[in-house]
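Feature request, filed as a ticket because there's no other form

It would be nice if the structure record came with a short human-readable summary line next to the tokens. Right now we just get the raw output. Example of a typical job, pasted below so the devs can see what we mean:
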Amino acid sequence: MRRLLAIGVAVVAAAGFGTAVPAAAVPGSATLTTSTRLADRRFVVTGDHFYEVGAADASYPATGWHIRGEMGGFWTPPIKLLDGLWFAADGQWLTATRFTSGTGYVRMDLAAPHGLKVSRVDLAPDGGRAALVGLTFSGGPPRVTLTVDAHSDLMSAYPWGFSTPSQATFNLPDTGSFDGRNLVFREAGTPPVAGAPAHDWAATVGSSLRPDAHQLGPAMRGPQDPAVVCPASDPAPPRCDDGPYGRGTGGQLTYRLDLAHGQRTVWFAVAGSDKGLGPAYAELNGALRDPAGALAAKLAARAAVAARTRVDLPGDPLLARSVEWSKQNLADSVQSAQDLHVFASHQGMDYPPPAGTVPSIRWIGAGWPDYPWLFATDGEYTAFAAVAAGQFTAIENHLRALRDVSEIVNNHSGKVVHEVTPDGQVYFGTNADAGNTDESAKFPSAVALVWRWTGDNRFRDELYDFSVRAMRFVTGLDADHDGWPEGSGNVERPGMGQEKLDVTVYTIRGLLDLADLAASRGDTGTATWARAQAAQRQARFEQAWWYGGDANGYADSLMDPGDVKLFQRHWIGLTPMEAELPGGPLADPAHAQVALAQRERDCYNGTFGLFHTGTGPTSDPAGNKGPSCDSVVSAVQSDRETFSLNTAVMAVAEGNYGRLGAQRFYTTGNARIQLDPSVWEFPGAMPEIAPSPDFPANIDHDFLSRSSVLQAWGTYGVLWPVVHQQLGVDPDLGQGRLAVVPQVPPGQQRIAGADIRLGGGAVDVTATASGRVLRVEVAARLGVRLALGAVLPAGSTVADVRLDGHPVGYRLVTSARGTEVVVDAGWSGHHTLVVDLT
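Raw output as currently delivered:
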């Protein structure tokens, strides 16, 4: 394995980005700053083929658990390059005193000697396999000795620390050298594992300036020398510097900088390749060619992200800010890899020859640092956030990647894989695995969602055949022929029956979405089959799954034989209300209202949202950990962890039934863990798990046991409620239609959104509720038939309806959200609807 890491130093003219402080480079660009507990905070910087994970004080603690202690540092999928990169001025290691999150970059203000001021910016340009680090020096002495330490740890994203084989046997030792300008780290060879391929990985640390001195050695970790090595298992020290599988080496470069002429910016680059030293050098040279231009391009790309789906929520400014940062979180999560050799590890137990290859994939990474890979469940929920943010290409590529890998490893069965590392390893989700049935069922729905928001028939056609086979596969998983497919779903916990609630719900939705796709293509046979399959299940759903009694909710699973209902208080009990079918959510409205009210109680919720598994009577030996809201004795223990996905699902479920007052608790929960300085770890990043009774805040855990600091799926609970439910944007561009039916949340008077992307156009929406008047103003810049409307406040009736100042015929539609007044507005354009109420 060969790895090339490059540190490049370049001086940037003051007229361009002469400073490494780019906050003002884009007017209005968002930043968030903290100066507390920096050593305890992780940060993530990403490009689409590179990422860096470190601590906000400019250190690099051993991080993560998949490969214990090795999930941080510098990575270019599918390999890791470095453990870290450290800087010293005149012998003093530079430690951050202030940390700022920006859009596509981070900035650190560093403590330096002799009155010197140093600011550091880290970014990973898109389209390359390199990171850039810019140091700006001002004040202080006219000459400074700059020292750069780099410590390699070339290793692959798989195997993991606990798999068979593990990195204990798979990882080979690195070598280090100096080529006259750069440090060169390499790992080349064949691991002593049956079937393991030979590899040639490379990394360099270098500079466009020639260093004045260099050193090589096993250490070179800046202030983290001598390294504390994490043990292979707990207990572990509060903080360590390397994992038990590390076999890297180090190098040091020294530069004498002339600062006599004032402020100066020095750029460094870290680059690498899993294809040998030559490509790694090419990445290094490309990154150093114009680092200021790369920063400008990054800022411009993120400004374009910010320009889409701009919202104004005067009554909920925190949620509006969360929309802005959630769009950036999604953009942060896009990754890519090439030349995947696809094989099934059978949950980390095997290392067989590859079943085939995929030339390249792009995907929305699930979470950093331990889940930056391709996941089906994560992507299928994140799809709703992606379309609401106008990030169509990212989710389209994600779905293509799932299709491409699934086709190979599952031999065209239609089953969708669950988890794929960027080398092509499929951990779970093969035909032999009795699970992730929900992910196959959700696939056609994700395709239909993208098609409705884009009107892209070519995308629909490209994934149609696989979508059909996915639903044929799911409906075939029915050994007892009761209509409810077997196999695990989202809740990967013991004690459940063979048939899961979420699998059932998403199967019904998937069949109806497939029917729409089929009908649009003229495939009447598939459309008829899918509608009939859905209707059969939908007709029996409430009787089969509503638990009854004081549970006030749906069974989590059915146990065979006999379809015995099991009630265990898992979050999937919300999916009948959360899943929006083409005609509205699945759950019976009366049951939905009861179930949602029950889930709002304290047995299901913590400070920041919904628990994974609620509290109540249980036969578990540990007993009930919290309040009881029902008398059902569950066989499983509660799990009072508040995942951002669980809270998102609850927020969406509330919105589907027009319960926007209750919804605010859940949208606020996800917004706070992203934006509240008293809660956040990485400012602006939504984590996997919120501070919870059973999972204290990430920042209070050691670096080996934390949840993801940046997790994409939680954005579902911010972007979708605002754009689709509050602003009411509901496109069906594949059929040439757009409906905009807002619902202003109670206690608020105005909500607005601009440049909400739809296909090749966009829509602006402003909705107001003032006294007894509802007003909806829409500017739709695309050629479709437009329906406008508003959700009426409970108990109100319509006195008058005017469109563009003229009386207009209207219809009253009863939906899960309430009573909607709807008018046909003709072809797109700018229109104003005014509804007077009595």
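Something like this underneath would help us a lot:
The chain is about 25% helix and 30% strand.
Residues 524-545 form the longest helix (22 residues).
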